[in-house]
Design goal:
Layout: E1 9-12, E2 38-43, E3 56-59, H1 63-77, H2 82-91, H3 96-117, E4 132-133, H4 144-155, E5 160-161, E6 173-176, H5 181-198
Parallel strand pairs: 1-2
Antiparallel strand pairs: 2-3, 4-6, 5-6
Length: 203
Amino acid sequence: MVKEHDLWVLTDEPYDAIVYDGVQPYSIAQVPEVRDRVMVLNSFSKSYAMTGWRIGYLVAPEPGYIKKMAQLQEGVASCVSTFTQAAATEALKSTACVDQMVADYTRRRDILVDGLNAIPGITCKKSAGSFYAFPNIKAFGKTSQEFAEELLKNAGVVTVPGSAFGDMGEGYLRLVFANSDENLKEAVRRIADYVARAYPNMK
């Protein structure tokens, strides 16, 4: 399709290093037939926990495009601060911190997802990547906005309504497990307590 319709592919891959259970990320840039028409965007924000530092990189097949992008970026955002450039350079020297973070996220994913699945009315699959869970809450008969507000007001747990991600997200919530084990266990406990009080007949 890329060649047939003379397309360029811009692929955003900041979660490529945060994967679980032996999953190997695959980029369209690995397809030999189209790699000369693919630009890969990546960031240090997820894999190296440098969120907010606004540093990333782009891989493109033709140097002329990179030069034009650099000219555009400089006019819009000046340049990346020197300390973040130094930090990014240092980060690239080792993946040990990324490996440890993925191990921590794997454990925290399991704490959250296993905990949610133990709550009547909630089902959740384990994500193969990123640090989000997307539990199904359709059994409660509420919109995702309504149920998210219930959890906020009555359980003190912040979630994002699935409807924020489009019509297909309705009936789901998004929760992040980039937090401490203790906080995740407490969040699960609060949700479970609220569901038991508010939906005693839920199975």
